Amino acid sequence: MYPWLKEMMAEDFTELTWQQVRVATLADPVKAKAFDITPTNVDETIQRRSQLLKSVLPTFQQFCQTSLRANFEEMLEVLWDLWLPLGMKLAAHHQSLNRPLIQGILGVQGTGKTTMCQVLSLILQQLGYRTLSWSLDDLYKTYDDRLILLQQDPRLIWRGPPGTHDIDLGLNVLEQIRQGEKAVTVPRFDKSLYAGAGDRTTPEIVTDIDIVLFEGWFVGVRPIEPTAFDLAPPPIITDADKAFAREMNNQLSNYLPLWERLDSLILLYPRDYRSSLEWRKQAEQQMVAAGKSGMSNSDIEDFVKYFWRSLHPELFLKPILRSPSVADLVIEICPDRTFGAIYSL
């Protein structure tokens, strides 16, 4: 942890401490630019961030203990360096729109989408905003509809790939929120139903939403050139694999109207996409250790590689890094799940 961070928490800092914070805040020009920090506004930014830090601390400490099950002091640096400035950035974006902000968050399995949404909700609440954390998973077709879908295409053995969602439902919900409707019915999905196949559950009625945090493993992802599958990376190997990948790529076109409702997109980019397999294994091991049921390592490999065959991260994420019209902010995730470079496109 930064040696000066505890002083910032107490707002009991000297001029020397302030100078240290100023230097640290501007030390990475690329990250500073991503959060709209300049030598001109850095003092005002530090002041506002330190005030926000102090107000969010009690809730964040409880969150670390109950939800993250992580050491509070170890998470403080991430809170200061990433989550607080990101929350402030979203608040500023909302103010500039004069209507609800629809913020997309794209990340493959294990990149921390859910945690980021939870922490941002805490921060935005302190800033006076009502947020809705919503997932692409909440738009899955019903269990019965997916049984019909499986009969039509036996390759869709798991929910998740393009084609397994109710896009019109998502468009309807986001449009109602964008238009500022007071009360909106938001669908929710329970993955535990039907022995893990999952189904729709009781929808949630939300009111006066200011910011939607809409996350998912392919939120914002665009179709790519079909020729990319001619020399695709493993596990897209056989002709059948390539045919499935091409069909999923075609299905992405149906999602473009949904992505057009996003005001901004954050990409949680794993430096090595293969880390998501290890992250999933770790998560399952933790579930088993807590007395819950979990998949075996071989089942996890089959599960994750199924998703790689449908939308391979190497093929679909890398183009976004070259597309400032698609994503606005990139946050790199290291193999040990720490955060790497943060930059705007």
Shape: globular
Q: Which stretches of 5+ consecutive residues score pLDDT under 50?
A: none
Beta content comes to 15-25%
Helix-strand sequence:
HHHHHEHEHHEEEHHEHHHHEE
Structural class by secondary-structure content: alpha/beta
Mean pLDDT: 91
Radius of gyration: 21 Å
Describe the strand arrangement of the main beta sheet, using strand numbers. Answer: 2-5-1-6-7-8
Largest sheet: 6 strands, mixed
Tell me about this structure.
The chain is an alpha/beta fold and 345 residues long. Helix content is 49%, strand content 15%. The strands form two sheets. It has a six-stranded mixed β-sheet with strand order 2-5-1-6-7-8. It is globular and about 70 Å long. The two termini are 29 Å apart.
SSE order and pairing:
Blueprint: H1 5-10, H2 15-26, H3 29-34, H4 42-68, H5 72-97, E1 101-107, H6 113-126, E2 131-135, H7 143-152, H8 167-178, E3 183-190, E4 199-207, E5 211-216, H9 239-252, H10 256-259, E6 264-270, H11 275-289, H12 297-310, H13 313-316, H14 318-321, E7 329-333, E8 339-344
Parallel strand pairs: 1-5, 1-6, 2-5, 6-7
Antiparallel strand pairs: 3-4, 7-8
Helix pairs in contact: 4-5, 4-6, 5-6, 11-12
